[in-house]
Amino acid sequence: MTATLRQGAGRAGDAARRTSPGRPRPPRAQRRAAAGMTAPFLVLFAVFFVGPLIYSLVLSLKAGGTGAFAGLLNYHAVIANAQYWGGVQRMAYFGVIQVSVMIGLALVLALYLDSTYCVGRKFFALVYFLPYAVPGVIAAIMWAFLLEPDLDGALNVPHLLGLAGGPLNPLSFRFALYAIMLIVTWEFAGYNMTILLTSLTSVPRQIVEAARIDGCSELGIAWRIKFPLIRRTVMFTVILSIIGTLQLFNEPVLLNDIASIGSNYTPNQIIYNTAFSFGNEPLAAAQSVLLAAITIGATVAFYSIIRRRADPFAAARRFR
Known about the structure:
Elements: H1 2-19, H2 28-59, H3 73-79, H4 82-113, H5 121-133, H6 136-146, H7 157-160, H8 176-200, H9 205-213, H10 218-229, H11 231-246, H12 250-259, H13 267-277, H14 281-310, H15 314-318
Helix pairs in contact: 2-14, 3-14, 4-8, 4-11, 5-8, 6-12, 9-10, 11-14, 13-14
């Protein structure tokens, strides 16, 4: 009897679902408005991203000079180019150190400006953000002069103390990578701090005030409440920084003009020289496509690792 009733109820439910009108469709005016608002983005995305990507893929399959179809020969040449992979490896090392320091510094500054210890929050937020308003070319030139041993007396201190045989030269090939780290951190720490500080405004004030009433310190509130609630934003800034690291171009080019660190210091410099100095645009297109694949792969790998650590049950669900 019970089974019969359940079967009847199931058939009635199926019939009701078949006859129900379902979710009402939005009016035609709303659909047109949505299409009109998204159309500019889609057009720009197609023109400046999809179009160049397709063009680069097609161009990378041609031979330099003749333009004949060459298949994957350009990609084989890139894979066999030790100088190209040396630049990628250099940028990977750069990203591990510089992104960690920059995002850590931006997070500390954002949490400090959002705490009760900070006086004049708007003023200091503007001061920390100002380096981002300086064009990258101007910033690189400014720091190149500041790091010049003949102009900066502080670089002679280790020599005067007997710790070095001569003045320190941060622009030498040995230390140039760390000089670029300093320049990029100075430029973008305030930018990332602004993003994190904006995200901190979404933290419920009731939770923060309740923690203060319970006797939690500002450091405990920052670490136990604020940081977990803005973790997604922190991950977003790290992903943007990873993408920016592999696209580094302005600072190495200018430092090469000033201190001669090499014209093939980063992958983007190699791509630029291949296309415009040697005139081999198909090979440069293959280098660009491969660099884009490396960038996407690094971003996806980082996102997967962070997501797996944030959700300890993800692996168990995957094997169900």
